[in-house]
Amino acid sequence: MTWPHSKLATHSPASHTNPGYRYFADRDVFCAGRVAASDLDRVCSATGASIQSTCSDIQDSHLGTCASFEEVQIGSERYNLFSGCPAARTCTLVLRGGAEQFIAEVERSLHDAIMVVKRCLTHRSIVAGGGACEMEVSAHLHRYADRNVPYKQQAIIKAFAKALEIIPRQLCDNAGLDATDVLNRLRVEHRQHGHVWAGVDFTVDSGVCANLLDKHVWEPSLVKVNALQAATEAACLILSVDETIKNEESAAPQGPQRGLPPGAAQRALGMRGRGRGMPRR
Fold first, then answer.
1. 90 with 24: CB under 8 angstroms?
2. Number of domains within the chain
3. Hey, which of 15, 103, 169, 212 would disulfide with 21, CB 3.0 to 4.6 Å?
4. Which of 118, 74, 93 is nearest to 223 (CA)?
5. What pLDDT score was predicted for residue 9?
6. Residues 201, 219 share a domain
7. Does residue 232 form part of some domain?
8. Are residues 218 and 136 in the same domain?
9. Is residue 31 in some structural domain?
């Protein structure tokens, strides 16, 4: 774990003027000041230490331990690294980038990956990624519509099945692959060859892998279930809207407010502009 360095007794110029810092620096003891309360709580949780408000009664049970402690320079900032903490269950990731938007994008991607791993640990059921699950559901709906739905409702089911192909198509677009060619290959793999876990693979020339499950491209099944449920509920909500009401007056563009014409204020006051109570001549 780390915290951004704020003040170090053995390196800070304040150690020559502050007696407290000079006292620790003379005895080769690390001393940091103005440390955030959240960082103090994390250090105590990782090392087993406890926060003390005075130095008069420090016991061995109040002290924490770690395997190694060092100060490192990362870019323009100095960080204090605590390694080998006996009670630590977390770690710190330092993200660096050339621009703020790059770091924000990396943070979002990292957060998504961590949440996927968390779902995998919570719910042990997994499916293959790379659009394999969506293509298999799409193929199943096409077969179901062809065999069991003879009327116009068949178009609705086929439209739902086609919408599921957006996921592998978007993966192909992101990777620079020919989406039309890859989707045609995936349809053949799922509908004719029966390869359930066939999906988009960026490591092969064809862009299609017959079994992504063996290549350890996994996704939690709970994520797929929630995504399908949310998409289905949104589509049903849109289809349930049978009429919209539009207010023509509020929809009309609002023009700038015009001022009063010249002399309007005087006419409203009865042309009494020559003084109070003065008769008009």
1. no
2. 3
3. 15
4. 118
5. 35
6. yes
7. yes
8. yes
9. yes
**Residue 186 CA: distances (Å) to CA of 73, 189, 228:** 50, 5, 20
Give the H/E segment covering residue 78. strand 77-83
Q: Give the CATH number for residue 154.
A: 1.10.560.10
Q: What is the pTM of this model?
A: 0.57
Q: What are the residue ranges in the chain where pLDDT is below 70? A: 1-17, 250-261, 263-281
What does the alpha-carbon distance between residue 228 and residue 145 come to, in Å, rounded to a whole number? Answer: 19
In a domain, 251, yes or no: no
19-34 tens-digit pLDDT: 777 788 788 888 887 8
Say whether both 7 and 101 belong to one domain.
no
Burial 131-144 (b: 16+ CB within 10 A, else e): bbbbbbbbbebbee
Rounded to whole angstroms, the Cα distance separating 120 from 54 reads 45
In Å, how far are 1, 106, 226 from 103, measured between CA atoms?
20, 5, 29
At residue 15, the pLDDT reads 44
Please tell me whether residues 155 and 209 are part of one structural domain.
yes
Phi, psi (deg, nearest 5) at residue 205 = -70, -35
CA–CA separation, 152 and 54 (whole Å): 80
Structural contact between residues 200 and 182, judged by C-beta atoms closer than 8 angstroms:
yes
Check residue 89 and give its pLDDT.
79
Residue 43 lies in a domain: yes
Integer Cα distance of 59 and 172 in angstroms: 62
- To 5 degrees, how large is the angle CA 93–CA 84–CA 54? 95
Full residue range of the structural domain in which residue 67 is found: 2-52+63-83
At 280, is the secondary structure helix, strand, or coil? Answer: coil
